Amino acid sequence: MKIINGIIRIIDKLIILPITKIIIKLTGKRDSSGKKFEALLTKPPVLLFISLFLAIAIFVLVDQKMLRFSDSSAEVFKNQQVQAIYNEEAYVVEGLPETVDITLIGNKADLYIAKQSAEHAVTVDLSGLKPGTHKVNIEYTKGINGIEYSVNPSVATVIIYDKVSTTHKLDYDVINENKMDKKYVVDNVKLSNNEVTIRGAQYKLDEVTSVKALIDASKLDTSELGTQNVNDVILKAYDKDGNVVDVEFVPESVSAEVTIASPSKDLTLNFSPKGNLPFGKAISSYSFSENKVTAYGSNDILKDLEGIDIDVNLSKITSDTTLDLTIPKPSGIRSLSLSTVKLNLKITDIDSEPSKYSVSLTGINVGSGLVAQPVDEDNSVIEVEVNGTKEVLDTIKAEDITAYVDLKGKGEGTYELDVKVSGKNPLAIYEAKKKKASIKVSKAR
Predict the structure, then answer these.
(1) What whole-number distance in Å separates Cα of residue 125 and Cα of residue 140?
(2) Quick check: 50 pLDDT over 50?
(3) What distance lies between CA 56 and its chain's CA centroid?
(4) Is the pTM of this model over 0.70?
(5) Domain shared by 327 and 366, yes or no
(6) Residue 56: pLDDT above 70?
(7) Structural domain containing residue 192
(8) Is the pLDDT of residue 132 over 90?
(9) Is the domain of 234 the same as that of 169?
(10) Averaged pLDDT for residues 357-383
């Protein structure tokens, strides 16, 4: 309607008014009958009727190609969907492009009408083809006569396979679990189906080694702990290398009962001194601002944890001090209720002679199927000197001290390794008088 009104205004301005002025000039020289004709011609209803008549005449001229607005032009429609016509229940088609570009050539009027079209149908008729390789034409169904067109690409080489099916065991994976609140875990998943049917070309089905339902943890409701139902869980098929295989699923999706839990455990914070205080100094007491921290993680990880050791370097401490320490997060733990803790240390002068103990040497982190033992008697017993306040030394027993070497990554052979000493009382200072020991690693009998 806006286009017609615009044409009428243009015709009125460029045709009706000039013609009216000419008629007025001509009739001005005539008698009174001319004046009557002029009055009639200048009436609005008459002018409107003339404008409408001329607009219809021009429309007919344009529509019948008797009048063109301009020379031919071109319009490109990109990424038009390609529709393949074939029996989708019986065959699989590969090689057909998903989209094509269409170039339309014609006069601007026709191109304008074509551009307003909601759809540009691009079809490939494969209905008469059997399994095998075929070269087919991609065609555009023209909506307007008089327009030339070209499709890019216009030809495709397609491969048609028979569609076959088989059943496959269904498992699940939890994805985006790192986007959940770290206090929560997906504790259990129960799928509505134990197996699904996969469909496609035979060579595709042969590639499938696993089919999994993907539980998206980021979309789960963690406002309440417990079990919730999740619908429309998407399915994916994978090959032996973990790549996605393009197949169809029956059913297309499954549902699942997902249990959200928040396993936690209170762990003791343990003071673990590293290095030695300056000569003549000892720790008389220590205290943490918090003695426990709540750890969140899977039950399998939590069951083996009792405490968290916090390493403290003592080499530069000479007097009473308070330290802000970061609590290390054990491997597999998702979150801790505290990230830092304060440690108050009381330092005093050593007021007694050191205690001396003879401790048997042991090996830690011995490989599977191997045993470790000192090469001789001189390497089997380590003399350990313990310093501290008299009150601390009075609590030390030989069985509370461990002398050891670390055999992590060591295979069969003889090794000379650093001797390390630890004790149950962190206020004492332990020193091995023998710094290295020879250990032989051999196969267990």
Answers:
(1) 12
(2) yes
(3) 61
(4) no
(5) no
(6) yes
(7) 165-261
(8) yes
(9) yes
(10) 90
